TrEMBL record:
<dbReference type="InterPro" id="IPR050204">
    <property type="entry name" value="AraC_XylS_family_regulators"/>
</dbReference>
<keyword id="KW-0805">Transcription regulation</keyword>
<feature type="domain" description="HTH araC/xylS-type">
    <location>
        <begin position="172"/>
        <end position="267"/>
    </location>
</feature>
<dbReference type="InterPro" id="IPR018060">
    <property type="entry name" value="HTH_AraC"/>
</dbReference>
<keyword id="KW-0804">Transcription</keyword>
<dbReference type="InterPro" id="IPR054015">
    <property type="entry name" value="ExsA-like_N"/>
</dbReference>
<dbReference type="Pfam" id="PF22200">
    <property type="entry name" value="ExsA_N"/>
</dbReference>
<protein>
    <submittedName>
        <fullName>AraC family transcriptional regulator</fullName>
    </submittedName>
</protein>
<dbReference type="InterPro" id="IPR009057">
    <property type="entry name" value="Homeodomain-like_sf"/>
</dbReference>
<dbReference type="Pfam" id="PF12833">
    <property type="entry name" value="HTH_18"/>
</dbReference>
<keyword id="KW-0238">DNA-binding</keyword>
Length: 267
């Protein structure tokens, strides 16, 4: 059975699965607070990977790419709750409380919280909405997001510099970013936003840096990595084609033969 994700109210999402499930590439546009109810989430991103274990709470930063694999727990069930911290509500909260976040170019991926009875109780308070025994109207949904903000700051006041940094992604080194994130199968517009550029500016800078188009470069870069995995890591294409951003195995085999003139077994 595939994963089911249900939007309980505008910013609250409940995910459930009963077998190992591979998530799609995800662009995270807003910060979110997440709670692993059961099972594990293995998250992969440019700088490495993270395992989110049962009963673990974490804050995920906005404006990044993540790929996940979800594993059911001993109960045979995978469950994860996430609540998005809406930018507009964050702005209102900062204004009302006279909070100014300090912009920092330093990004630490792991933002786990120490066991906290208040945060645990908060997620337990969301169960009635998941179980459909209580309806969350817009005003109440707004209050639940504000409550999450309060609890995050109570747990770690320094996180104000994460929550209340409203600056747009700054223009970063395009070549370095693409070599770290080429395996994510997302749009050019998403790559552009994450590098602090418009779509047209991204394509223009990309041509200067790589002397080709994003589509052509991504295809070549992924296929070169495929050769390395086959020849030196002795991996099978079926085990890694999704990791390199190919949508299906037949597409990978076609592109591979077209570039190298050989099949994967011949190479």
């Amino acid at each position: 059975m595939a994963e089911s994700s249900e939007i309980i109210f505008d910013k609250l999402v409940y995910s459930c699965a009963f077998e190992k499930y591979r998530g799609h590439e995800e662009f995270i546009p807003e910060h979110f607070l997440g709670f692993q109810l059961s099972g594990e989430t293995h998250a992969f991103y440019a700088d490495g990977n993270t395992v989110i274990s049962e009963n673990q709470i974490l804050l995920v930063r906005k404006n990044q790419l993540i790929r996940t694999i979800k594993y059911p727990g001993k109960s045979g069930k995978y469950q994860f709750i996430s609540i998005s911290l809406d930018s507009e509500i964050l702005r209102q909260y900062a204004l009302e409380n006279k909070i100014i976040g300090e912009h920092s170019k330093q990004h630490k991926q792991k933002l786990f919280f120490e066991p906290d009875e208040f945060l645990n109780a908060y997620f337990l308070s969301l169960r009635p909405y998941i179980n459909k025994t209580k309806e969350a109207k817009p005003k109440l949904a707004n209050l639940k997001i504000r409550e999450a903000i309060e609890l995050i700051l109570q747990s770690n006041p320094d996180l104000k510099n994460v929550l209340f940094d409203f600056s747009e992604p700054y223009k970063i080194d395009l070549e370095e970013f693409m070599n770290q994130n080429y395996m994510f199968n997302v749009s050019v517009e998403t790559f552009a936003k994450l590098t602090g550029r418009s779509a047209s500016g991204f394509k223009r800078d990309f041509a200067k840096a790589f002397k080709t188009t994003p589509k052509q470069w991504l295809r070549e870069r992924r296929l070169d990595e495929a050769v390395y995995r086959i020849k030196y890591k002795k991996e099978k294409p079926a085990d890694f084609y999704l990791d390199l951003g190919f949508e299906n195995l037949s597409h990978f085999y076609y592109a591979f033969k077209q570039k190298f003139g050989l099949t994967t077994t011949e190479i």
